[in-house]
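quick one before i forget lol
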Amino acid sequence: MRIVFSRKGFDSVYGRVPSPIFPGDRMCFLPIPSPNERIKYSDVSCEGQNLGKIVESLPQRRVCKESSVHLDPDLDHDAYPREAGWRGIFGQTGAAQSHLKNRGVTQEDIFLFFGWYKRVDVIGGRISYVAEAPDLHVLFGWMQIGSIHRVDSLQPSALRWARYHSHLDPDRAPNPLNTVYVARTELALPGMRGTVPGAGLFRTFRSNLCLTAPNARGRSEWRLPKWFYPPCRERALSYHADMRRWRRGTNSVYLKTVGRGQEFVLDCDSYPPALDWLKELLGGQ
């Protein structure tokens, strides 16, 4: 099994402000704006609130409720009107898809999606970022791959329930790398008890979802469980084979993550504790 740490949502280029952590620790994922998409922010909801109203309440916002949104990854059934058979879905293309393919990402592997978050206050319906709060990389969702589809090879009748998704837009130019990943109905991890959906959002912030180290100088400085330290550079988290990026602590490992790349792949065969870590993380979702 592989774990893919996938960076998504508002960033310093698209959106330009963090996704919010509201009072009470409730998180709201802000997918990036994208021109010519069929879906607008006002069409999407987050925890029962209209996402268009949320983005218009953000300070220094670069989008409005009528801005087109790239709803990807799409992990929440209640975020948008669905047809029967809907499952979590995620699309990728370009260099990022080539990286996933070259790393052998396949069915049963798990995406852990992370993004830029910061705590906010809400006063009079207006959102303000807490000045002293740190900027954080936070895990906000997961998806275990049930099937993988090269879009250019799909029959018109395939994945009818997903035709709203931008990677399946019939007006999109042909692209041999354009690929969609569809979630399993339920998670399948050896020894995991209970039923957990194959894809979903972490609704509430908690410490084990936060990747950024305490007192870090930037959100890209991570603190991870000590077993993440690479056994050798060839088996390190992809894009992070430079061992100067890694530092052992007493009970943790510290990593200066790269600025490039959307998808960082970890091969669990080289990290035996990874499965128990996943079960704890996803069992407490």
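fyi The chain has one domain: 2-206+270-283.
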